[in-house]
Structures are given as structure tokens and as C-alpha cells.
Amino acid sequence: MEMFTGIVEEIGTVERVQHGQHSAVLTIRAQKVLEQTKIGDSIAVNGICLTVTQLLDGKFSADVMHETLNRSALAQLGHGSHVNLERAMAADGRFGGHIVAGHADGIGTVLGTKRDDTAVWYTIGAGPQILRYIVEKGSVTVDGISLTVASVSEKQFSISAIPHTVEQTVLKEKKAGDSVNLETDIIGKYVEKLMQPAVPDAQKSRITKEFLSRYGF
Fold it and tell me: How far apart are CA 188 and CA 176, in angstroms?
């Protein structure tokens, strides 16, 4: 499995989107992420792991499958859209953000932004299937950017980014109403899985609430 860190290397520009019946091909203009990149390598585009299918002069193409379009905000990209880009982490690379798989858990909506003396705050709305894995002071990936959660409630969470991070990523273009790709910390998912181990069918209890009611309990 390819792994990313959530540290954006550069902002790319979508040059072309070719839509198929259930998929699309993105062609993205870039520079830095093309260095030493080969066909078949992985690049995270706004936090979504895509495989390079074609390398051209100053740009690359990648296929986006139907499932990816359904679960991410990539479907909203068009000619001229700016995207965060990060190559998969090299085996001997330095680890700067947190473990990012490049598989979006869903889409969030920017509810508002505000700036203070040292940071830019973003409040993002999300569904319960995402918020269950978001914890205060934990990590979350927003459009491929590794960020720390400042606060979380039942329907939204907030992050604060330093101005440098904002200026070096597509965060600087985000405003209320915009959609963002969200990937929660993978460690939380593994912990949940381990706390609820699979039980073979033969060991599952056949005693249900309906069974007890039927016999007077």
C-alpha cells in the first residue's frame, strides 16, 4: 500500500477532465511531483491516491474510478482547478505529517473561515460516519493536507493552519460552501476494528430481543 504524509509538495492545475460513463481521466500540469516519477507511480491529488497513466511535458494523466468520484470531491474539478499534489512517500523519506492512505472517507463542507494574529481557522461540516473518528488534538487530512483538529462537535470540526500552510496549498482558495476531501486518522479505524473482533457464525448468540419477548422475558 502506498503511503503519504499529508505534506503538500506543490499546487497543480487541472488542464483537462475527460469524463467517461463511470470514470474520468484527469490531466494535471505540475513540476516538482514529476521529478523521478514513472508511469504506475502514485500521486495524491487533493488527498486522493491516483496512479499515473501517462507522462507528458510538464503534466501527467491519471484515471479516476467510479467509486472514487462518488466518495470524493474530485468530481467537481474542471479546467483550471487548482489541486494539492504529493508523491507517495519514499522508503527512506522523512516523516513529516501523519499516516495518510490517500483514500477519502467522504466529503466535508467548509462552513466558515476566520483569521487571527497567527493562524487561519476553518470550520468544516461532516457526517457522523466521519466525525466518529475525529478527536480534538488528533490528525485529519483535508484535501491532502495533514492538519490538527482544534475542536469537534456533533456536526462539525475546526482546524487551524499557519499562514504558510494556507499559502502553499489550495486552502487559500477555500470559502464557505466549498467541498473538501476528508480522510480520518487510519489508526483510529484499526483500533476500532481490534476492539470489535470478528466472531465466527457458529459462536454468535441466537438469543435476540424478539426471542426473549416470545418466551416471556
Answer: 28
